Amino acid sequence: METLWLDGAQWTAVLRIGLGLWWLESWRHKDKKDWFAGGGIRWAAGVAAEHRWDVVRRGFDLVVKPRPRLMAHLVAHAELALGLGLVLGFLTPIALLAGLALNLIYLVLMIHDWGEQGQNLMMALISSVGFFTLSWQTWSLDAALGLFP
Length: 149
Prior knowledge:
The protein has helices at 8-28, 32-36, 39-49, 54-64, 68-88, 92-109, 114-132, 141-145. The chain has one domain. 74% of the residues lie in helices and 0% in strands. The mean pLDDT is 93. By secondary structure, it is mainly alpha-helical.
């Protein structure tokens, strides 16, 4: 594939790194004090309680609601780990698939808020492109360490 400035593999690495920066911004902008005190999970509980799909309400009540502190840490640290993994290109295929899964969870939870859907859909698309173009083969620790050839 002929491109301007960078080759195709380098452009997919740029997408991967940009997605990683997006995840890091997602982590950075959280008010950590409020988030870890339960603010994020309280907000999500309100969204889940009003959700149009019963399976989402029941799933939230079963999995998240009994463990608000654990879930707050899981979400925040997952976003940080995804960001670092994608920017550095470390365990990249795993980070891309985990990020895709997290975006799909966010998408389902926030199905009624179309303003949020653009971000989740775009991040899911970039994750898919990064995975199927093997974006870890360029400018990554994975390539330097010979992981995922």
